[in-house]
Amino acid sequence: xxxxxxxxxxxxxxxxxxxxxxxxxxxxxxxxxxxxxxxxxxxxxxxxxxxxxxxxxxxxxxxxxxxxxxxxxxxxxxxxxxxxxxxxxxxxxxxxxxxxxxxxxxxxxxxxxxxxxxxxxxxxxxx
Length: 127
Prior knowledge:
By secondary structure, the chain is α+β, with helices and mostly antiparallel strands. It has one domain (about 5-125): VC0802-like (2-Layer Sandwich). The protein has helices at about 25-30, 80-90, 110-120, and strands at about 5-10, 15-20, 35-40, 45-50, 55-65, 95, 100-105, 125.
């Protein structure tokens, strides 16, 4: 199998941590792109940075590298291989997935380094 193609999404994103009791703000649910993760003790949101969220903690200035799919759920190692390339380049990541693909978030100030590392590893990048 060949290397995947990744696309750099234009907006800048934020990652928010909320208490498990907080409700999801309507501005999130009406947004065109968001991720929600909920466990027994945490609610995490990934949203475009311009959406204001009252959170316990927030981390701003993330960019998204989308693995262009759809990817079959039986495919093995895609996230691990891309993660290994970025780890070798000393780039922190935050990863979210959908049924059809994966999204790698990297800090804005490491985006060019991430793109260069992935291109060196023979991934195609659309910017």
